[in-house]
UniProtKB/TrEMBL annotation, chain A:
The keyword Transmembrane applies. The chain crosses the membrane at residues 21-43, 75-92, 104-126, 132-150, 157-179, 199-219, 245-272, 284-302, 314-333. It comes from Streptomyces atroolivaceus. Keywords: Cell membrane, Membrane, Transmembrane, Transmembrane helix, Transport. This is FecCD family ABC transporter permease. The keyword Zinc does not apply. Pfam families: FecCD (PF01032). It is found in: Cell membrane. It is a multi-pass membrane protein. Belongs to the binding-protein-dependent transport system permease family. FecCD subfamily.
TrEMBL record, chain B:
It comes from Streptomyces atroolivaceus. Residues 57-333 form the Fe/B12 periplasmic-binding domain. Pfam families: Peripla_BP_2. Belongs to the bacterial solute-binding protein 8 family. This is ABC transporter substrate-binding protein.
Length: 341, 333, 331
């Protein structure tokens, strides 16, 4: 009841919201710090002073070019993709009422990546609009398939997602072995990475992410009502069917756009909602806001890790998040235990 | 396929006969020469191997494929070797396409039965030493003597292709090809003597990976540089951490290290595809602002080089022509 | 009660006969098929020693036997873990035992010199370590099969990430060899590679056969099992050892072959119409599946052979989705 009061009662919100705003501001400060750090760390060392100067007083020196034109776009991309994955995870978990739901585990990411691979092999997914289109189509099909097969039981949902991911990766690997020239793109889509995206045209997918994030915030009130149960939602006047459909559209858009620019990155959508669930205290709008801030922080940290874990070269960020995500999933299972499974 | 299967039955049968102790090396080879079974000992990567002095039926894989096709060795089966196709002469390409394929591009895709069916009296394997682990050499040895002559340094193709041709008993044609190449290289060296040797050069290779955000820097003696060096060029610097094989002469730094790598270069060369188009990995470097900031690039001294994968004297002739075309502007001043 | 039990037994007997016949057919097909087709008559002549053919007796025969024996071993390992977790998803490849064994093998290749003894030790150690870790993590005021499966999926993701990292760190040429191996392949398997693994698998399977009855009882419920005097914890430990041993041995020779362990016990169980997950149908189905997948892998791209792991992943994954769909419809 306090939950409902906090989210929907504007009068009550005034009183209880202060610590949450403080936390949000703290998160934003952390995000800024990590973003600046990520622009300073890399193969070519750039002193912190130069990072700040590159951002405020651009002179076009090599260090400035590295910060502004190589690492800057990469950091921005990490922010967009991190926010997209975390929010789509929060939306799925709220919608499915399943703490294990996540676009990567549910095979939605794999569907998007596979569709792009097929699309580019057919020569249809050229350019950002084509890639985005195929990614969204792939994630919609995967989401529908997995929910159709796996509904009713949270565990079955997860299992279906894992199976779908395995099938798609097997088929993609087989196709690549049979037609190596046509499926050369497979290497690019088989593992998620943020490297070398600075030259790619990313305006459209990033715009799609921003619009969807705004949409998620607008929808969050209605989802909050939905989270209290469908009866409550109906009495509060939220059209249950419409809200669900809208949320599904947002999930596939966010996940598809993130996969289109970065390839499959797993577990961010799982970890972040769990980390912010407690401070959000059952309020969906806060859950989504926090996810929007913490998702980028996590992905930026993983991306910094991807640059320093090897003596030369990089570990793709998708591998880093999978390694970080494993323990989180274990923690979630132990925490939410047999009851939710 | 069906034709090969019926004839294959004969192959299996004759192989079993052969191994049962009949001793004659092959049906066609049943002439006087092979009945005497003259052999010699040949030093290869896998030890001292006794091979026929005058092999009649040779199977070649990997780097040995283009070398032995050029040298007109008596081939009866080869592995697929796509990367060499654009560099083959029309005649050699026709020969390459006609020959039976007994293995895929990767060593793990070796089809032992297809090799046995080709009834070779010599097998020449041209794969890097660590990849030999993917091949069941023992099984191949039960078919015919196996000589492994794999690439080590990218520039070592001169010695290796000679060894491969030597094993296959095809040195005559090979030596002629080598002479033509060396004459042409010497001619170009004189042509560019006034402009090329004094330049400090750097090279961007084709094997960088965009998805990893790196570029491929090649130093002297690497794929993209060794033939240009024959023309008199010098590439400066050396790898940060030398490894075995190609890792001794090339490395894959992050794109961020482009200025550190090439700031001192007077001129830069870069590998392009055989048809002159720029590969994705190289285009990524060329489009980078860091590249455009380099002094050599600002001075307009960048030169694309085609056919950098050449690993035989025949294909390297293409490379020499390509270098001549690309470097021509240097002479104009 | 009695008649239904009889029915199940008769059905099982028929199934076993059919499966053995299928195994023999696929095995014969494997001996005949290759770059050149050998007639069954010729194959029999070689097998009985009337004729000699190195290709058939030293090249095709070990590969066919490896397909059948490894398939059976994977099927048994799958049945054991599905019994332990009482969940069809509890098979070794899903919960990360394959990935763990592969980690051990990768360490043997990249850090040590990668001899076959090191490969075997490395992969068994890796598999056991992962099994122990999953068991400990899943143990929380009692034991839940479902929890174990999901924790296994998480561990699988982590071990796969670790494997990619090891491969990325390795020297380029070694990495290429290791990548080629990651899909699991029977190409180029020879007698030398097989003697020790076959002996090991034989010991493990015989050990398991002696305890099969106890396992079947245990799978019907802990309460019944304790009542009939089964030392439950000792039995479980033995089962885990046999399961991990089978998985790791196969992985050491052929690399990770996915989804046979998952699919075989479930198909076998349905065909036998039995309660629980019986071992023999699982073993026979596994042998048929792997040998069939390997034949398919050889034929799809002939003369170049695909790794059998690619084929088994696609087949197994599709099967699993079908399985889940059926369960939804029934629910």
């Amino acid at each position: 009841m306090t939950v409902a009061g906090r989210a929907s009662g504007p009068a009550g919100a005034e009183r209880t919201v202060a610590p949450q705003v403080g936390l949000l501001v703290g998160g934003l400060v952390l995000l800024t710090a990590v973003a600046v750090l990520s622009m300073g760390v890399g193969a070519h060392p750039v002193p912190p002073g130069d990072v700040v100067r590159a951002l405020l007083d651009y002179q076009g020196t090599d260090n400035h070019v590295i910060v502004r034109d190589v690492r800057g776009p990469r950091a921005l991309l990490a922010v967009a993709v991190g926010a997209a994955l975390a929010v789509s995870g929060a939306l799925i978990q709220t919608l499915a009422r399943n703490p294990l739901a996540e676009p990567g585990i549910l095979g939605v990411t794999a569907g998007a990546g596979f569709a792009i691979t097929i699309g580019s092999a057919l020569g249809l997914a050229a350019g950002q609009a084509g890639e985005l289109g195929f990614a969204v189509i792939g994630s919609v099909i995967a989401a529908l398939l997995v929910t159709a097969v796996g509904r009713r039981s949270p565990l079955r949902l997860v299992l279906t997602g894992v199976a779908l991911t395995a099938v798609l990766s097997g088929v993609a690997l087989g196709l690549r072995l049979m037609l190596p020239d046509v499926f050369d793109m497979y290497r690019f889509w088989s593992v998620g990475s943020l490297a070398a995206r600075e030259q790619a045209p990313l305006a459209l997918p990033v715009a799609a992410i921003v619009v969807s994030l705004a949409g998620a915030l607008l929808l969050s009130r209605a989802l909050n009502a939905l989270a209290l149960g469908e009866n409550v939602a109906q009495t509060l006047g939220a059209g249950v069917g419409r809200v669900r459909a809208a949320a599904l559209v947002l999930i596939t858009l966010l996940c598809g756009a993130a996969t289109a620019v970065a390839g499959p990155i797993l577990f961010v959508g799982l970890i972040v909602p769990h980390l912010v669930r407690k401070p959000a205290a059952g309020s969906v709008p806060w859950l989504i806001l926090y996810a929007m801030v913490l998702g980028p922080v996590l992905l930026l940290v993983a991306d910094i890790g991807s640059r320093v874990l090897l003596p030369t070269g990089e570990v793709p960020v998708g591998i880093v998040t999978a390694f970080l995500g494993g323990p989180m999933l274990i923690w979630a299972v132990r925490r939410y235990g047999a009851g939710s499974l | 396929m069906s034709i090969r299967r019926t004839s294959g039955l004969v192959g299996v049968l004759s192989l079993s006969l052969m191994l049962a102790g009949c001793g004659s090396s092959s049906e066609e080879g049943g002439s006087k020469a092979s009945e005497k079974a003259e052999t010699r000992v040949f030093a290869a990567d896998n030890g001292k191997i006794t091979i026929p002095a005058d092999p009649k039926r040779v199977v070649a894989t990997g780097y040995a494929v283009p070398a032995l096709i050029e040298a007109d060795a008596p081939l009866v089966g080869i592995s697929s070797w796509k990367r060499g196709e654009p560099m083959m002469s029309e005649e050699d390409l026709a020969e390459y396409k006609k020959l039976t394929k007994v293995a895929g591009e990767q060593a793990a895709e070796t089809n032992y039965e297809a090799i046995a069916e080709a009834e070779p009296d010599l097998i020449v394997i041209g794969v890097p030493a660590p990849v030999l682990g993917d091949i069941d050499v023992k099984r191949l040895e039960s078919i015919a003597p196996v000589v492994a002559i794999g690439p080590s340094l990218p520039s070592a193709w001169r010695d290796l292709s000679r060894k491969q041709a030597d094993a296959a008993g095809a040195l005559e044609k090979f030596d002629a090809g080598q002479k033509t190449y060396e004459a042409k290289a010497a001619e170009l060296k004189t042509k560019y003597a006034g402009v090329l040797p004094q330049l400090k050069l750097g090279h961007v290779g084709a094997y960088g990976e965009v998805a990893k955000g790196n570029f491929h820097r090649e130093f002297g003696g690497s794929w993209g540089t060794n033939i240009t060096e024959d023309v008199g060029a010098t590439y400066y610097g050396k790898v940060k951490k030398a490894g075995p094989g190609s890792a001794a002469v090339s490395e894959y730094p992050s794109i961020e290290e482009l200025p550190d790598a090439f700031a001192e270069a007077d001129a830069l060369t870069y590998s392009v595809n055989a048809d002159g188009s720029v590969s994705e990995a190289v285009q990524y470097v060329l489009d980078s602002k860091l590249w455009k900031n380099l002094p050599a690039v600002k001075a307009g001294k960048t030169f694309p080089i085609r056919y950098t994968e050449a690993a035989t004297y025949g294909s390297a002739m293409n490379t020499l022509d390509a270098i001549d075309t690309s470097l021509a502007p240097l002479l104009k001043r | 009660m009695n008649t239904s039990k009889l029915k199940v037994e008769r059905r099982t007997a028929v199934l076993i006969a059919v499966m053995v016949a299928l195994m023999l057919c696929l095995g014969l097909l494997g001996l005949c098929y290759g770059a050149s087709w050998a007639s069954p008559g010729e194959v029999f002549a070689v097998l009985t020693g009337a004729d000699r053919s190195v290709v058939i007796s030293d090249w095709r025969l070990p590969r066919v036997l490896a397909g059948l024996v490894f398939g059976a071993a994977l099927g048994v390992a799958g049945a054991i873990f599905q019994n332990l977790t009482r969940n069809p998803m509890g098979s070794p490849d899903v919960i990360g035992l394959d990935a763990g064994a592969y980690t051990g093998a990768l360490v043997a290749i990249t850090v040590l010199s990668g001899t076959s003894a090191q490969l075997a030790t490395g992969s068994v150690t890796g598999g056991l370590a992962v099994a122990a870790a999953i068991y400990l993590l899943a143990y929380q005021r009692g034991f839940s099969g479902l929890r174990l499966v999901v924790i296994g999926i998480a561990v699988n993701a982590m071990m796969t990430a670790v494997n990619s990292w090891i491969v990325l760190r390795a020297e380029l040429e070694v990495a290429i060899a290791a990548v080629g191996w990651s899909a699991g392949s029977l190409n180029g398997v020879s007698w030398d590679d097989l003697t020790i693994p076959f002996a090991l698998i034989a010991v493990l399977l015989i050990l398991m056969t002696t305890r099969a009855h106890a396992m079947h009882q245990a799978s019907l419920g802990d309460a019944v099992a304790t009542a009939t005097g089964v030392g439950l914890n000792r039995l479980r430990l033995l089962m885990v050892l046999v399961g991990v041993g089978c998985t790791a041995t196969v992985t050491a020779v052929a690399g990770p072959i996915a989804f046979i362990a998952l699919a075989a016990p479930q198909i076998g169980r349905r065909l036998a119409g039995a309660a629980g997950v019986p071992l023999l149908p699982a073993a026979l189905t596994g042998a048929v599946l792997l040998q069939g997948a390997d034949l398919l892998a050889q034929m799809l791209l002939a003369p170049v052979a695909l790794p059998v792991g690619v084929v088994s992943t696609a087949i197994g994954g599709c099967y699993l989705i079908w399985l889940l769909t059926k369960e939804v419809r029934r629910a």
